[in-house]
Structures are given as C-alpha cells and as structure tokens.
Amino acid sequence: MNGTDVSTIVLNRLSEEFETLTPEAQKAARYVLENPHCVGVSTVREIAEFANVKPNTFVRMARQVGFDGYEDFRAAFREAIRSGPAGFPDRARWLQDVSKQGALGGLYAEMVGAAIRNIEETFAKIDSDALKAAAEAIWASRRVYTLGVGVNNANARNFTYLASTGMVEFHAIPQAGSDAADDIAWADSRDVLIAMTCHPYRREVVETVKIAREQGMTVIAISDSPASPIIMAAQHRFTVSVDTPQFFPSSVSTIALLETLLSFVIAVASPEIVERVEKFHKRRHQLGLYLEDPE
C-alpha cells in the first residue's frame, strides 16, 4: 500500500467519524479534509493557526480517530508526498515543450496539465471495490435519479443518456420546469440518487440529498472534498479533483468517474443488458439515425 492509499484511508476515517468529534475538533477535521496537502508539510502549530484552532485541538482530533497524536496522524500524509501519484510517460517533457509555444501555448500547457493531474488524483483516491459496490447498488435498484445543476446538469444528463441505452428507469433531475425534491417525491429504499456538486455547494443538491436519505434512498455522492455536505450524507462517496487555471471548476475528472462507474454497472449487470444495448443500436440503424457506410 503506497502513501496515497494510506492518506486516503485516514481521510475516509476522519470523514466517517466527523459527527462524533467535538465542535472544535470538527473545525480541525474540516481543514484537513479540505486541505490534505497541507498536513504533511505543516507542524501542529502551523496547521492549528491555518485552521484557527489551538494546537491541542489537532492532537485531540488525531487521538479521537485512533492515532497516538498529531505526528502519528501526519506520517501518512508525509509518505503520500514522498511517493506521489504515478505520472504519464514523458508527461513533464511534453508539457515543457508546449509551454514554449508562447502565451497561449503556456495556457494550453496549464490546462492540459490540470486535466491530467485531476484525473490522476481522482483515481488515486478511489478504490475499485467502492466503484463495484456503487455499481451493484445501481443495477439492483428500481429507479436511478441523477442530480446535477449548473455545469453538472449536463454531466448528469450525459450519464443518464448513456445509461439509458441499456437500462430503463434512469432519470436526470431536475426535470424541465420541476424541482429535484419534487422529482424524487415517490422514491424510497428501492431507488438510488446519484448527486454531484462542487464548492460552493448548491443548496438544492444538498437539500435533495438530505430528503433522499430521509426517504431511505441509497445516495451516491460525487464532490470535490471529503468535507462536502453531500459526501458526508452519502452511503457511496467519491471525491474528485477539479482544479483548473481558469475561473470554473473542471468537469474532466467527474466525467471520467461517471464513465468508469457506468462501465462497472455494465460489468456487474446480468447478460440481458448486452441484448438491450444491441437492440437499442439496431433500432437506431432501422430508423435511419446513422449515416450508413457506402457499399
């Protein structure tokens, strides 16, 4: 197990134990969850100042989640810095080359670098068993609702469109002219909600996740921090990296995660899904939706 795996386990434990912590320890925990990269390079006094709590608060927080103290807690994050994520072959050399093309070339390099880094960091934090568990919940459900607003509405609709080629009862919400909370009014423990939002978190997404849990639904959350309110509330939790040089959060890792989740759903599904996909595309050809290759 590498350092990244260990630090991810620590973050997951901290997220799971969050509600049991004292209010001051929650402030410390929230800072760690939102700034894990700071832990390995910060002394207890430094990180306490960043989080606006006393150093002893970090010591108590570490003990409350099973460590001897802050230094023991910090060790996993120091190892993650040392080992780091695996890089793409020759990535650094290629990025240096494109950055020499001028101002726009430099921006291009920054954008490409951020996209690659976001995907690497996202999948470094995600366990295949966690994806399999979420996929099995989706396949076993009666209905699946995919919730996203703003840019994530397009991501939710794209995922729903692809899933609907082989599955029925997939619904992107909020539906036109409706409210997400209304769209799940008759959902229950037989149904799944896939919800996504990034900081600053959209109120309607957070509130719909809360309602979904109250109705007994299974929630799969995708967000940018273990401290995200929808991550905290979900049974299946996936944290994505969304950093970008631009003013908007990147959707690259969210889309990659959704595509991977869908591939896991297909993998765990019964054989009938292959027949459905084949029938779907055969129907499209029959309707003339595709340009056929000339004979």
TrEMBL record:
<dbReference type="InterPro" id="IPR046348">
    <property type="entry name" value="SIS_dom_sf"/>
</dbReference>
<keyword id="KW-0804">Transcription</keyword>
<keyword id="KW-0238">DNA-binding</keyword>
<dbReference type="InterPro" id="IPR000281">
    <property type="entry name" value="HTH_RpiR"/>
</dbReference>
<feature type="domain" description="HTH rpiR-type">
    <location>
        <begin position="8"/>
        <end position="84"/>
    </location>
</feature>
<dbReference type="InterPro" id="IPR035472">
    <property type="entry name" value="RpiR-like_SIS"/>
</dbReference>
<dbReference type="Pfam" id="PF01380">
    <property type="entry name" value="SIS"/>
</dbReference>
<dbReference type="Pfam" id="PF01418">
    <property type="entry name" value="HTH_6"/>
</dbReference>
<feature type="domain" description="SIS">
    <location>
        <begin position="134"/>
        <end position="279"/>
    </location>
</feature>
<dbReference type="InterPro" id="IPR001347">
    <property type="entry name" value="SIS_dom"/>
</dbReference>
<dbReference type="InterPro" id="IPR047640">
    <property type="entry name" value="RpiR-like"/>
</dbReference>
<dbReference type="InterPro" id="IPR009057">
    <property type="entry name" value="Homeodomain-like_sf"/>
</dbReference>
<protein>
    <submittedName>
        <fullName>MurR/RpiR family transcriptional regulator</fullName>
    </submittedName>
</protein>
<dbReference type="InterPro" id="IPR036388">
    <property type="entry name" value="WH-like_DNA-bd_sf"/>
</dbReference>
<keyword id="KW-0805">Transcription regulation</keyword>
